[in-house]
Structures are given as C-alpha cells and as structure tokens.
Write a structure and sequence with these properties.
heterodimer, A: 327 residues, mainly alpha, 0% strand, B: 499 residues, 66% helix, globular
C-alpha cells in the first residue's frame, strides 16, 4: 500500500513538473514579457521605459532560463524560470502582476475557505441527490416515472447552467425576495448567501449525472448476482440498496471524484455570479484583469489537486472494492 | 461585383459539409454503415432532431458565405476597386430588413414604441413620451388602433404559408416514399399517416410541420416588426439569435474535429505499440488532463489574445480578427480536449490488436502502419463518431460558460454566450428586459436538445450495449402489437421496390 502510494506520488510529481514546464512555455514564450507589459500598462503609446520599469518591478527583466551574468548556482536560480516556475513547487506563489501586487499565497489561503464553504456541502449533496434520483428511476424501471424522468434529464442537461443561475436569481432573489441577490458574509450568515447557489448548482448538474448514474445502475442490474438475489426472493429495495448500490459505487466514485479539484477551486461561474469571494471568483478577476501571475499559480494548484484527487480515488477503490489490489 | 471573402472558419464549415457529403456517399456504398445509420433514423427522436439540426446547419452554411460589397468608385476606371470594410454574409442579405432597421435602444417584442421614455416635441410642447420606433411597425398610421389587427393578420398569413410549405414537403416525401416502395401516391400518404413506413417518417413530418408553423408567422412578422425585440443598441434580437447559430455550430464541430488528429493518431499508436511509446503518450495526456480544463483554456485564450492584440496588422477587417479568434478558440479547445478520446481509443486498440484477424495480418507480414490503417482504424471509427456527436452539444454549452468567463469568442461576434452575458444585466433592470434572454434560451435549448437526442440515437445504433439504458414506457406493449414495430422486423434496409 505505502509502496503504491509512493509510486503514484512520484508519478504525480513528474506530471506536476510537466504541467509546470508547459505553463511556463505557454506564458513566457508564446508572448514575450514585453508584450504582456504593454498589455498590462494599457493605452496606445507605451514607452520602452515604462515596459522596462514594469518588468523590473515584477522581476520579469531577468533572463528566462540561464543567467550568464550571475555566477555559480545563481546562474540558474536568478532567472524568471526559477522565480516563477520552480518556486511554485515549494508553494511560493509570489506577487500578482496587477498594480496592487497582492500576495497570491495569502489570497489563496483566505479565499480557499470561502470556496470550501460553498463546495463541500455542494459536493456531498450532489452525490446524494444524483444517486438518489438515479436510484428512483432505476427502481421504477420501464415505467412512466422512468420514461419521463429520463426525458426530464435530457431536457435538463440541454439547458446551460447560466440559464439556471439567471432564472433562479431572478425568481428567488428579485421576485420572491427570499435570499440576497449576491454577496457573502462569514459565519452562520453565510447560509443565506450560499443556499441559492448550492441549490441551483445541484439542479444544473442533476440531469446529466442522474442519467449517467442511472446507466451505471442499469449495467449492474443486468448481472447474474442480481438475478440470483431476486431468485432468492429478496425484495426489490433490498436488491437495489444492498446488492446493486455498493457495486455501482466504483464508477460513481470515479465520476464524482473528478469534481473534487473543483471543490477546492470553487465553481468559477457560480462564485462570480453570486459575488462569493472564493478562488473561482479570483480566477475570473485574474482573467478579466489579465493577471497572468495569478493564473499561473491557480493552474498549478489545480493540477496539484487533480493529481491528489486521483490518488485518493484509487485509495477509495480499495475501500469499496476489496478485489482491487494496489500492486 | 462583391468580393467573396473566405474566412478561416468558412473554409472549415465548407470542408465539413463536403466531408459530410462524402461520408454520406460512403454510407451508400457500404452495407454495414448503411445498416447502422438506418438504425439511427429508426429512432423517431433521432429523426426529428436530425430534421431540426439540418435546418440549423442550413442557417450556419448560409451564414458562412461571406463577401464585402464593392464601393462606388469616385473617379476614373483606373482606380483600384475599393471594398466595404464590413464583411457580410448571405444571412445578412436575408435579414437585411433587420440589419438596416436599427432602433436607438431597447424595444419590446413586436413593439411599435420604444421601451424607454424620451423627450419629443408633441404639438409644439416638449413632452416625455414613449416615441414611435423608426422601423418596428412604422407602416402603421395609428399604431394603438391598428396594431392588434395587423399583427394577427400577418401571423395568420405566415401560418398559412408555413402550413402550405409543410404540406408541400409532406406531399414530396409521400411521392418519394411511393416511388421507393412501388406504391401509388395515395397509398403512400395513407401509410405515412398510419406511421407504417420503414423509417418513422410521420414523426419527422410532424417536426417539419411544427417548424413551419413556428417560423412562418415569425418571418411574416419580421418583415415589419422586431419579433424578439431589440437590444440595448437597438439591434434586432432575432437576427442575433440566427447569427449565433453559426458560432455555435463552428465551435461544436470544429473543436471536436481539431481533437481528432492527435487523439486518433496517438491513441492508436499507444495501444498498438505499447512499451515506451505508450508510456510517453500516457504521460502526455495525463499531464494535459491534470490541468483543470477551464483554466487551461483560459490561459491559452489569453495568450492568443495577447498575440492578436500585438499583431493588429495581420487582419484586414474586424470580422477577420473575430473569425481568427473563433478559429483559434476551436483549435485550443481541440488541443486541450483530446485526452478523453485518446484514452478511449488506446484501450480499444489494445483490445483489437489481440484479436485473431490482426494476429493473422501480422503473421502474413503486413506492416504495422498498414495494420493500423486498414484493420484497426476502421474498427474504432464508431467510437470517434459517438464521441463527436456527444461532444457537439457539450461544446455549445461550454461556449456560453467560456464567454461568461471572458475567454470565449470575440465580443463583436454574435454568440449565445454573448447574448446570455448581456441578458444577465438586462434581467436586473426594472422593468425587466427579458426578450434577449428568451431568444437565446429558446434557440440554444432547441439546438442542444436536438443535438443530444441525435447523439443518443447515434450512440444506440453504433454501441449496442448502450441500448439497454433506453427507458421504455411500456415494455410489453411492443410484443402485444407486433405490427406496430416494423423497425424490429426489418432492421436491414430493404432494397427499393421490393414489395
């Protein structure tokens, strides 16, 4: 077990290196720091001096990979690559490109908790709602409920999540005035602000996931052990909950687990629509402000979380399915 | 003489249509393919959605023929012919009343007066009134008295024309059915009405009827009114919705097509050769897929944006710049999205290469490339088709999110994402400006729903395993009425005129 985790961890590290290299190439060689400086300063006439100043302030004036002027180990460490890419591995994010030059690490640490408050309840409820809905459809297989349930699923997954947000916000915040339109408050007050985004997000993914899980359950239901269980005279609910559900959990874990990175990163769209100051909203701000330093850091964190998630999922497999041996 | 402009995405749309036709030709020639595709169209939902998709595709193709009008030259014949800086498409010509009938600001659907009050001179005094629109209902003298009658008259006329067109199409289909089956025309009509034809043509014709009944009145009203109102700058919303169809289509198809070369080549290579090639390819796609998708796309699009901004001299017109952005967005979506299909193809190739016929080919000394091309690739094509149609609708939905995030298509280009984005602010106005939202919603749901249903039909036909997931309302009903299910008994397409 430990051996396996170590090996996966090492492979994950290799992938992280790849991601890092890739983002560095993307951000620094497709466009030179000069281009980015020009864009960030804005305006039509940007002098070379302004660009140089902008670059020096943010440390982009160093050479990209090898610093010939420095000596010894500094040849490698006194470069943009070292400052901006390698240091990410030590979770040192540096400062943002914007004029305020906030500390990215600090921002991430504070915003992370806000995102978690939205995402953890959402993640848990999502699994329960989707699995429950799918089980309902499977329980009434080949009946009217199943048929119209699947029709509703297809209809729901054909509607963009943005529509759910706009209509939901309009109905519940503007017409019925049940919850505030947007914003956030710490502590217990947060519930008032979070309940609508959580509900809408649940609804917007229910169609797709409900249908997917239904297919997974149906696949299990066609197996021999289910027939045996029924032949023994077990009641249908017992067959479903005791026999089918645990076996269908494996694909469901994989599918639900792929959302885990977003549990930390927060939902980009929902956070920015509802004015929740989490990581998702941070990303949107960075994109609209064209702050590449923030984006690079978030990309790094995102892939770190992704890799960690997949190792977790693999460990979860052994827990739900004793047949899976980690070797 | 206008100058025909070939934008990047136009070329791709045309190539795609040609490829579709070529594939259609291939289906005609191959018994297996024909059987599979007939199976797709045996599903009434798939047939109906195919009709709707075809209409949308038609709009997209018409909107992909771009040209720039020639300007009146001021002087001698020697002068170089100048062209307008505005790039138009054939669709703009169709909607020329909408393009030219610009109002100043918001107006309600079918309105004759503006949505907001304005200071106008009335009987020598300046008053705050709702002024008449410049174009919407401008032909009415007394708009309050005549409006209802005029709208009803136009709508009924449009409905009548629409029904006539639908009937004509129905008669045409009946004629074709009669010819193919060797029936008389009258027999064919009866068979169609009883839904006794080989394909569920009745459902398809009902779809045509509904489309005609909806679009007949819409177009009849659109000659004098703004059917979906106007947006903040006074542009017709119906026109914008139609323009957005092409953007959605291009994103939906081009992005998946862009994933194919990498996904297919690398997937088959990895599955076939295994060993270190497999390791390297696996590493590549794991790395790529470990970056959250939206972030990766955002990063790439921003980089592309910087490039476009710093090289303004590369693009002659604004439309060209917007189009290059759309094109590159699709390429980015393709380059970041090939991991899933690649993984799928790798697994399938691994399974296939152990099969006897591949082993036999190896034993005969067929080269590796030839085996991959002749024996493995044709047997994974169904996976490619399924993925392509399934991704289509997902990508259209994705475009809306990307536009919201700010990394979607160019703001000057009409797209559903852009419409929703603007609608967000409009919905918080008081009174509510709901029509842009409604237009984007109805068009997008129609398109995505049709795409989803069609994709389901394709998946069921090409992947027999997936058919068990189809919900059946009445599983015994089929057995009780065997004559009602001709699809089951004659799944192989019968030869023409074999009664």
């Amino acid at each position: 077990m430990l051996n396996y985790i170590l090996r996966r961890g090492f492979y994950g590290f290799l992938i992280l290196l790849g991601v890092n290299l890739f983002t560095f190439l993307l951000f620094f060689t497709v466009n030179t720091p000069d281009d980015m400086a020009r864009l960030n300063i804005g305006g039509k006439r940007v002098t070379q001096e302004q660009i140089e100043k902008w670059k020096t302030e943010r440390g982009y004036d160093k050479p990209l990979y090898v610093n010939d002027k420095a000596s010894g180990l500094d040849k490698l460490t006194d470069t943009v690559f070292w400052d901006r890419s390698v240091s990410l591995l030590a979770l040192k994010f540096g400062r943002s490109d914007a004029r305020s030059a906030t500390d990215i690490g600090h921002e991430i640490r504070t915003r992370m908790w806000v995102s978690l408050q939205l995402a953890v309840p959402l993640f848990v409820l999502q699994v329960f709602a989707s699995v429950g809905f799918a089980l309902l459809l499977v329980f009434f297989k080949n009946s009217r409920i199943d048929f119209w349930g699947v029709v509703a699923c297809v209809l729901m997954l054909s509607i963009s999540s943005l529509f759910y947000i706009i209509v939901g916000q309009f109905l519940f915040s503007r017409m019925f005035r049940l919850v505030p339109i947007s914003g956030f408050a710490p502590g217990l007050d947060a519930v008032r602000f979070l309940i609508l985004p959580v509900a809408l997000s649940l609804l917007s993914r229910l169609g797709g996931e409900g249908r997917l899980y239904r297919a997974m359950f149906l696949e299990e239901i066609g197996r021999d052990y289910v027939r045996t269980a029924r032949a023994k005279g077990l009641s249908e609910p017992r067959v479903l909950f005791r026999h089918v559900l645990p076996n269908a959990l494996i694909p469901i874990i994989t599918s639900a687990g792929s959302y885990l990175p977003y549990v930390f990163l927060g939902s980009l769209v929902f956070e920015s629509f509802f004015g929740i100051p989490g990581l998702g909203a941070y990303v949107i701000d960075a994109i609209s402000g064209q702050d590449f330093a923030i984006l690079r850091s978030i990309v790094f964190i995102g892939s770190l979380l992704y890799i960690a998630t997949y190792i977790l999922i693999d460990i979860a497999y052994t827990w739900v399915d004793p047949r899976v041996r980690l070797s | 003489m206008p100058k025909i402009v070939f934008l990047w995405s136009d070329v791709v749309v045309m190539l795609l249509v040609l490829a579709l036709l070529a594939y259609g030709w291939r289906i005609r020639g191959s018994v297996n393919l024909r059987a599979s595709w007939t199976k797709v169209f045996h599903d009434p939902a798939a047939l109906c959605s195919a009709v709707i998709l075809l209409v949308f595709l038609g709009v997209a193709v018409v909107d992909s023929v771009h040209f720039r009008r020639a300007l009146q030259s001021a002087g001698g014949a020697q002068q170089v012919q100048a062209y307008s800086t505005r790039t138009e498409s054939l669709l703009d010509v169709v909607f020329s009343t909408q393009v030219e009938g610009r109002e100043t600001t918001y107006s309600r659907p079918l309105a004759t007066r503006a949505f907001t009050k304005d200071s106008r001179e009335v009987n020598g005094r300046t008053e705050r009134i709702f002024p008449r629109l410049d174009h919407g209902g401008a032909h009415l003298k007394d708009d309050e008295a005549e409006w209802a009658g005029d709208v009803a008259r136009r709508a009924l006329l449009g409905l009548a024309i629409g029904l006539a067109v639908a009937l004509a199409i129905g008669a045409g289909v009946a004629a074709v059915v009669a010819r193919v089956n060797g029936w008389t025309w009258r027999q064919a009509v009866v068979q169609l009405r009883l839904n006794q034809t080989d394909l569920p043509l009745r459902a398809g014709l009902v779809t045509v009827l509904v489309l005609c009944a909806v679009f007949g009145p819409v177009f009849a009203l659109a000659t004098q009114y703004h059917v979906f109102g106007t947006d903040r700058t006074g542009n017709d919303v119906l026109y914008q919705a139609f323009k957005s169809i092409r953007t959605a289509f291009v994103i939906g198809t081009l992005s998946t097509v862009a994933t194919l070369p990498l996904a297919v080549a690398l997937g088959i290579l990895a599955g076939y050769f295994k060993g270190w090639i497999d390791e390297v390819i696996q590493y590549l796609y794991t790395t790529l897929s470990s970056v959250p998708n939206v972030l990766l796309i955002a990063a790439c699009v921003l980089m592309m944006q910087v490039f476009i901004d710093t090289h303004p001299d590369l693009f002659e017109t604004g439309a060209e710049r917007a189009d290059v952005r759309l094109f590159l967005l699709c390429v980015i979506l393709g380059l970041t999205g090939w991991a899933t299909l690649c993984r799928l193809l790798r697994a399938e190739t691994m399974k296939l290469r152990e099969l006897d016929y591949v082993q036999a080919a190896t034993a005969f000394g067929v080269s590796d490339w030839r085996i991959m091309l002749r024996h493995i690739f044709p047997n994974v094509v169904h996976l490619i088709i399924i993925t392509t149609v399934l991704d289509f609708s997902a990508l259209i939905l994705y475009e809306a999110v990307l536009s919201y995030v700010g990394v979607g298509v160019d703001p000057s280009m009409n797209s559903f994402g852009g419409m929703i984005n603007l609608a967000r602010n409009e919905m918080s106005r008081d009174p509510v400006v709901w029509w842009s939202f409604a237009a984007a919603f109805s068009f997008m749901v129609a398109l995505v729903l049709a795409a989803n249903l069609f994709a389901d039909g394709v998946r069921d036909a090409f992947d027999p395993r997936s058919r068990i997931f189809r919900p059946r309302r009445n599983p015994l009903g089929r057995l009780a009425r065997p004559e009602a299910a001709p699809a089951a008994s004659s799944s192989t397409p019968s030869a023409p005129a074999s009664r």
